[in-house]
Write a structure and sequence with these properties.
456 residues; alpha/beta; Spore Coat Polysaccharide Biosynthesis Protein SpsA, Chain A; 20-stranded parallel β-sheet; 34 strands; 22% helix; 29% strand; binds uridine-diphosphate-N-acetylglucosamine; binds magnesium ion
Length: 456
Amino acid sequence: MKARAAVILAAGKGTRMRSPRPKVLHEVGGRTLLAWSVALATDLRCERIVVVVGPDAGDVSTQAARLVGAENVVVQREQQGTANAVDAARGRVADFPGDMVVLYADTPLIPATAVEAAFAEVAATRGVCVIGFEACVPGGYGRLILGPEGDLERIVEAKDATPVELAVSFCNSGIMAGPAALMYDLVSKVGNENKQGEYYLTDVVALARGRDLAASATPCAEADVQGVNSQAELAAVEAAFQSRMRERSMTDGVTLSAPETVYFSWDTRLAPGVTVEQHVVFGVKVDVAAGARIRAFSHLEGAQIAEGAIVGPYARLRPGAVIGRDVHIGNFVEVKNVRVGEGAKANHLSYLGDGDIGAGANIGAGTIFCNYDGYFKYRTVIGEGAFIGSNTSLVAPVTLGPGAYIGSGSVVTKDVAADALGVARGRQIDRQGWAKTFRDRQSARKKAGDKPEGAV
Ligand code: UD1
Ligand code: MG
């Protein structure tokens, strides 16, 4: 395989998004459009990945630098067209000893296989290759004009096309591959004599043909090249991503009770044999092992769930929730940064934040880990087999030994030893007959119109 480079165009202003956030920093499946395109280039084993950003790109440059290294972020000073954008990366890529691909940062769903096909074509022909698609509504896309042999003769932009050319429905996705040195040689020859006065990358095709070099178009599905230009298109791409993930997880042996109500992130990992009930949201970094069941209306992010665990209904798992084998996390239980040992149960109405729960422990309804003093956070450690009575506040830092037993309604501020009983609440007092005496006295006063002081 030839060495590969990628130039990712991210200099667009994205004005149609009407958002203060730059377009390529909007997310699909919990990952920014920019990160999607860098991930694609990485999947394609591109050893040099350069991101072209606009002037004053601020956060885009920062994120791009984090993803590909600051030396691989280049600025296109003025938006003079796609060839001009590619040209901005000349200093990083023109002397690259291998093949390159141009990717758009606003087109996140392109499968690596489609780009592999273009690279394969380039490897075979040493010419240029674009990814094309049959457009339902060709509209403003560039049209791929094929020769008699099915080879690509040129690309004409919709604004410059004749009516006959406009009738062509095989369109340009914008993704183009070719040997890096050749691409940069051709880009330097692109002019701007067209309706938009822009330097079109698409002109590279006719320039290559003019030198008797090969040019071709490999097809891909229209759904795979959906771009994001507006909030509505962002939502459409998100929906397409979600339906892919649903299909993929079902193909992998995951049971989804109502697939259309389950939302995935780009990195959601569900093992075969996992069951996910209705209306579940997976934020980023969730990993669920075989046989676990995620019950309806649960929200999970940054969580790891072991075999046989049951989470929900209505559970919330936050980053650092590590749920052991056969653990039960029930309704209205929030878990953050807590490791829950095998077989432990927290079935109702609890906040468990920053701590460790031993295997087999039973966390009663209404247990709260008081982990925050307004400035710092502290850990709660519960030993194996401990039993926490309902409505207990555990004021961290605090450690309960294995087998400890906490009386309901306690506010625990000190450690409790293994197998000890800890009770921290007022003692119960019973007075025989008190209630009846009280009622008799008050009703007599009411009849006599004798209001106690302060009554309204
Ligand atoms: C481009 C293609 C068209 C194709 C379509 C697919 C050209 C001339 N036309 O048209 O054939 O059908 O994409 O969506 O290439 N960009 C820069 N700097 C610039 C101009 C653009 O970085 O100066 C970036 C944009 O941010 C965007 C991408 O390049 O990510 C494409 O630019 P855009 O203006 O959307 O091109 P189209 O007119 O849609
Ligand atoms: Mg466009």
